[in-house]
Fold this protein.
Amino acid sequence: MGGGECMDNDKESAADTTRLSDPVTGSGSGLKNILGFVIKAAISIGLIAWLFPANDLEKTGEQLGSADPLFLLAAFVTALFCIFLVVFRWMAVLETMKVSVSYLYGLQLVLIGIFFNQALPSTVGGDAVRAWRLYRDGYPGGLSVRSVVMDRIIALIGLTLLVILCLPLLFFQLGNTLSFWMILALILAAAVAVVILLMLKRLPERFRGNRIVRGFITLSSDAWAILRHDRAARVTLGISMFVHASNPFVVYCLALAVGVDVSYLACLVLVPPVVLVSVVPISLAGWGVREGAMIAAFGFIGVPAQEAFVLSVGFGLVILATGLPGGPVWLFTRRKGGRAEMEKKNRALS
C-alpha cells in the first residue's frame, strides 16, 4: 500500500536531524518501559477489582453476552467510522507541516496506532509506533513525532470545546449541584492547559533555554499554524468534535443493547468528561480509570453502579475491537519501504 509525497521545506527538513528507534523491537522494550507497563496494569486491575468483586464481573459478562446484537453492531460501526474520519484529521495536520500522504497510507498508520493503544496495550505506545512508521518511511523524525502529538492535542482541543458547548445541557441535567461544579472544574483545567500551550509561542526568549520548553514552544507554533489555516482548522476541529460527540452515541447504543435506561442527551453531556479523565496515561488504555469515572458520572443521574460499569466495559470492548484490524496491517507492512518506494507506489495507485 502506498504512502505519499512530501512537499519539502528544504530548510526545515535539513534542520530536523531527530533519530527515532523502533519502539517495537528497539529501546521500547527496555526495563523502564516494562516497569511502566507493570504499574499501569496494576492500576487497571486494582481499580476494577476495587470497584467490583468477582461476582459482579460475572454479572457484567452475562449482561453483555445477552445484549441485542443489532445495537452492538451499531456501536461498533459508529466507532469504526470515527477511525476513518481521524485519518482525515491527521492528514490535515500533516498538510500544515508541508507533508502530503495518501489516505490509504494514513489509514494504515492510524489502524496500527490504535492496535497498539487498545488491542495490544503493552510497553509500546500506539502513537510512538505511528510516528516511527512515518519516520521509517523517509520523513524527518521530529516532524513525525510532532504530527502525532499535534493530532492528539487537536483531539483534546476538540473534546474541550465540545464539553464547553454542552455545559448548558450539563447544568440542565445536574442543576446547581456539587457534581456539576466538579465537572466544570475538570473542564476548566483542560481549557487552561490548552490556553497555556497556545500562549507558549509568545514566551520571552530568556525562558527558552530548556530543551523541553523549546519542544512545547514548537508544539505551540504547530497548533497556531493549524488554527490560523481556515481549512485545517475546520477539518481538524470539526472531525474532533464529531468523533467525541459520536462516543456518547456508542455508549447510548450499548445502553439500548443491555437495557440501561439513559437518554442520548445524558450520554452526550456525561461521556465526554469521562473520556477526558480516561486519557490521563496512568492505566492500560484507560481501563479502570474509565470505569470509575463512568460510574461516578452516571451516578449523578441515578444510574446504578453495576449498569454504568457494564456500559463502560462495553465501550472499552468496542474500542478494543476497532483496534484489531491494525494487527494484520502491522504484520503485512513491516518491511521497510522508504520515501522513494512510497512515491512510486502512490503514483501507481493514482
